[in-house]
Amino acid sequence: MPIPADWPTTEAEALAEQERLRPLVQPHDDPGRDPAAPGTLIAGVDVAYDDEHDLVAAAAVLLDRDTLDVVEQATAVGRIAFPYVPGLLAFRELPAVLDALAALTRTPDTVVCDGYGLAHPRRLGLASHLGILTGLRTLGVAKTPFTFDHHEPDAARGSWTPLTDPATGEEVGRAVRTRAGVKPVFVSVGHRTGLDTAVRTTLDLARHYRLPETTRHADSLCRRALADARRTGTNAN
DNA sequence: GCGACAG
DNA sequence: ATCTTGTCGC
């Protein structure tokens, strides 16, 4: 399925859309629910591009939260919907991600995104944006500090330091050490999830590598999907 | 104006 | 994100 008919085309439209969605974000756990409940399905999503051929491929992978086994996966290929503009990444990545998620048979308990959620200039990074659009719980795990500040966490796995917005001083996320002595990842709340839960979930999923198992699987899958599409002509699931 | 800038 | 070889190490 193509790009949503009403998808923003200009930066001005995208900025207005972020302002509209921003107040809808729920930056905390759902009341009366155990966020660490066993037997849940966590989804990982990621996107790969080929600007040359105007192609984008997204992947959605479902993992069992306890065993980290992949239980289902889906991909979606389409045209690039928006250029890369820092702060407006959601408009470039989400159309394909929504298609990949829609192709899944089961609904994930939480979706782990590549990038930020509340840690965003206007508090609506792609993770939060995706949460509002789907109603699903989401959180973001980014690989670089973006425009935020942080101090180096202690070397032990599990240690973390606050990620702050230099403009306001508020904590927008956390720099989390998922592997001893390895560069930290940057976790932020997406939607219907609190920061403690987002960090806990990230650590549970990144037991063996720096990045969550969800993103690692989604990353390799969307690259394969892109290679296929580039070789064939278009779609291929 | 200049530099920085998730993926 | 993507362009790209070998190399050091568990």
Automatic annotation (TrEMBL):
Catalytic reaction annotation: Endonucleolytic cleavage at apurinic or apyrimidinic sites to products with a 5'-phosphate
Which keywords label this protein?
A: Cytoplasm, DNA damage, DNA repair, Endonuclease, Hydrolase, Magnesium, Metal-binding, Nuclease
Cofactor(s) needed: Mg(2+)
Q: Does the keyword Nucleus apply?
A: no
Q: Which CDD domains match?
A: Endonuclease_V
Task: Provide GO CC annotations from the record.
Answer: cytoplasm
Q: A Gene Ontology molecular-function term?
A: deoxyribonuclease V activity
**Amino acids binding Mg(2+):** 46, 114
Taxonomically, the superkingdom here is Bacteria
Q: What is its EC number?
A: 3.1.21.7
User: What is the top EC class of this enzyme, as a single word?
Assistant: hydrolase
Q: Which Gene3D superfamilies match?
A: archaeoglobus fulgidus dsm 4304 superfamily (3.30.2170.10)
Q: Please tell me where this protein is predominantly located.
A: cytoplasm
Identify the InterPro entries for this entry.
Endonuclease-V
Q: Which GO terms describe its biological process?
A: DNA repair
Which HAMAP family does this UniProt record tie to the protein?
Endonuclease_5
The family this protein is said to belong to: Belongs to the endonuclease V family.
- Please name the PANTHER family in this protein's record: ENDONUCLEASE V (PTHR28511:SF1)
Protein name per its UniProtKB record: Endonuclease V
What organism does the UniProt record list as the source? Kitasatospora xanthocidica
